From TrEMBL, chain C:
Gene3D superfamilies: DsrEFH-like. It comes from Halomonas flagellata. The gene is tusB. It holds the Pfam family DsrH. InterPro entries: DsrEFH-like, Sulphur_relay_TusB/DsrH. It comes from the Bacteria. This is Sulfurtransferase complex subunit TusB. PANTHER family: PROTEIN TUSB. Transmembrane segments: none annotated.
Length: 117, 123, 96
């Protein structure tokens, strides 16, 4: 669930984008590719095509199911959309180190995944 | 004795969407367990069978329904959806009225379910 | 053997039916809280077929003035008995 309290803001192309205490967008409608680049920079990531295709998978997952996926369903969704080679946790770990389901959801402008630690 | 459990967790859902939070809470518990790699079966009993009806919408005040969550179950590998056949009949429904493929259970088959799972949660 | 625990009265709630349909032939049923009303002679018929496997919690009967009014076939247990029933069962399943 996105919280309504803005803990901090990032400035992206002159817009002030509100983030919750964990760095997720407060207003999901604020998302744009430029916002994703800005959030990725905070994570020390430079986004490649491989990142973007996962972000797209996440955004369509959210459109369809109204929730951000935990790791297992994320792996499954990526596998279904991009093929079995990419539908593996190691691939996602490499792209979004740490906690891929959380990091990728943040960059994709989704709320924090509900069903993972 | 190594009991051959078909899955680790049986979540019994006895409430429809809207009205109360029970259905959502039960689905959340199932999703958390599945996210951690547990095998999960869902058993829809009593009023719970109505949770699976097609064509559900948001509530009159815009409250989110649960259809999207039910459609998501397959992504969490929750594919054992059991339905109390007698309850379906009490509501004048058939499996064709439901949004997902389910297995209809007789009263005898239901009685075997709690013992066949390592953990049972009722919602 | 599983221990099923019911805390709703059969006079006001149909939850007891869900408990009954979910019980295997050797499973036991313990009535607690308002569920203990089901131990009354007029209401125990809802639990036909559970002879020897139907229990009611003494503390909840006492609190409701129902101790001594139970059908003889219902086994009345105190909290220690509740614990013992739980230990004898593989697992418990709550109906509420």
């Amino acid at each position: 669930m996105a919280t309504t309290a803005i803990a901090r803001v990032v400035e992206v192309e002159g817009e002030r984008i509100g983030l919750d205490p964990e760095g997720y967008l407060v207003d999901l409608a604020d998302w744009s590719p430029a916002v994703a680049f800005a959030l990725a920079e905070e994570e020390g990531l430079s986004l490649t095509d491989e990142h973007w295709e996962v972000i797209e998978v996440l955004r369509s997952f959210y459109d369809r199911f109204e929730m951000a996926p935990a790791m297992r369903p994320l792996v499954k969704a990526v596998g279904q959309a991009l093929g079995p080679e990419k539908g593996r946790s190691i691939h996602l770990m490499r792209l979004f180190p740490g906690s891929p389901a959380k990091v990728a959801a943040r960059l994709a402008g989704l709320p924090k995944p509900t069903h993972c630690l | 004795m190594s009991a051959p459990f078909p899955s680790d967790l049986l979540v019994i859902l006895r409430h429809g969407s809207h009205g109360t939070n029970w259905l959502r809470e039960g689905l959340d518990a199932a999703l958390v367990a599945a996210a951690f790699g547990r095998g999960v079966s869902l058993l829809f009993m009593g009023e719970g069978v109505t949770a699976l009806l097609r064509d559900q919408q948001v509530g009159p005040l815009g409250q989110k329904g649960t259809s999207a969550t039910l459609e998501m179950l397959a992504m969490y590998d929750i594919e054992t959806l059991l339905v109390e056949e007698a309850a379906l009949e009490r509501f004048g429904l058939t499996a064709a009225d439901l949004m997902l493929p389910v297995r209809l259970l007789s009263a005898e088959a239901i009685a075997a379910q709690p013992g066949a799972h390592r953990l049972v949660l009722t919602f | 053997m599983l221990l099923h625990i019911l805390n709703r009265s059969p006079a006001t709630s149909r939850v007891y039916q869900q408990a009954l349909v979910s019980m295997a032939p050797e499973d036991r049923l313990l009535l607690i809280e308002d569920g203990v009303q089901g131990a009354l002679p007029q209401l125990v018929r809802y639990f036909d077929g559970l002879q020897g496997r139907l229990f009611a919690l003494r503390e909840d009967l006492v609190a409701r003035g129902l101790e001594g009014r139970c059908e003889a076939s219902v086994q009345v247990v105190d909290v220690d008995g509740f614990v013992a029933l739980t230990e004898e069962a593989e697992r418990t399943v709550s109906w509420y």
